[in-house]
Amino acid sequence: MAAAAGRWRAGLALLAVALGLGGxxxxxxxxxxxxxxxxxxxxQGVGSASSGLWDLLGNAMVMxxxxxxxxxxxxxxxxxxxxxxxxxxxxxxQVHFKIHGQGKKNxxxxxxxxWYTKDRMQPGPVFGSKDNFLGLGVFVDTYPNEEKQQERxxxxxxxxxxxxxxxxxxxxxxxxxxxxxxxxxxxxxxxxTFLVIRYVKRRLTVLIDIDGKHEWRDCIDVPGVRLPxxxxxxxxxxxxxxxxxxxxxxxxxxxxxxxRTPEEEKRDREVYLPVVDNLKLPGMEAPLEPMSGLALFLIxxxxxxxxVFAIVIGVIVYNKWQEQSRKHFY
Length: 330
What we know:
GO terms for molecular function: D-mannose binding; metal ion binding. The chain is of the alpha+beta class. 18% of the residues lie in helices and 31% in strands.
């Protein structure tokens, strides 16, 4: 496994070059495992009230080889959440997971989500977590709710950024608020399945390794994603009338150290609400730049000039009208 992990890390480095994160400065990119945001065997302290870095919620259970978010039983939901807020600027989350169960194709559900959000430990309808969230959700959806759609093949991975104003549309499998996605046949496989969420220089990418070849495949690539710092990582799952085992084997967060030009430093300044540039979704417009003092002065000045001009014209018109009235009277 160590050799395979090395190949996967090398594969990501090569893919970073392909995504424009490389070039001459790619050699200066460093990555460090952040244990306070990572979860792996033997899961020591997970769910402990007095110690540990991760909390369990709902039906989630710690097993020897994995953390089971939900069992292959109807109407269950579970989650595991990091207790430590993440203040990293650039990061990469590697998720080792397994989805399996007795249900045949399209008779299983519902999937799981990986979260980077302001709120934690709040159960809800979106893959076991709250709706109208603040932050990022990456969804591994195993059941198609929209009957008439033909474009997607499930299981399907998608991503959503929310500033708290958007609702995840279950009936349409999140299509109205989706940033991007890909088909990922991840159920009942005999080999390891991985997903990587990478956030570098306001660019969100999701990669998958699900074919047992130790090769990363593109899934989602969205520039202009602005995520605040200080949010929490977590993962959650839910079953309804249909079910599956949703297992998390590990979550590994890497800090990425990337050089920035002065222009990139200015562009990547701190933000306080999640937003995606140029995204045409209700409530998700990029915040307007604050108006400068000079611009405000000019607007007020010319508004006053226009008002005075209108008053003068009104007085002249009124005097002309009075003069015409007197002439007509005599």
